[in-house]
Specification:
Strand order of the largest sheet: 1-2-3-4
Shape: elongated
Radius of gyration: 13 Å
Helix content: 10-25%
Bound molecules: zinc ion
Order of helices and strands: EEEEH
Largest sheet: 4 strands, antiparallel
Distance between the termini: 44 Å
Structural class: mainly beta
Length: about 60
């Protein structure tokens, strides 16, 4: 078993572990994590460990 402070991240689309994470705070104070895969360019968002809809984020971040 691994004992890492952060869970190993793998892309749900291609299985690569070349995923970057960027912590962000939305204008309403919601803390989210932006994930992006270097291999297949999949992008997704997590909020408190749960995947969330990108459309919702765009509504919150977009101008
Ligand atoms: Zn990928």
């Amino acid at each position: 078993m691994r004992k890492a402070s952060t869970e190993p991240l793998t892309c749900s689309a291609c299985g690569s572990d070349s995923v970057i994470q960027i912590d962000m705070t939305l204008p309403d104070g919601t803390e989210v994590v932006f994930n992006s895969c270097h291999v297949c360019e999949a992008k997704w968002w997590d909020k408190e460990g749960e995947p969330i809809e990108v459309d919702g984020i765009i509504d919150l971040v977009g101008e």
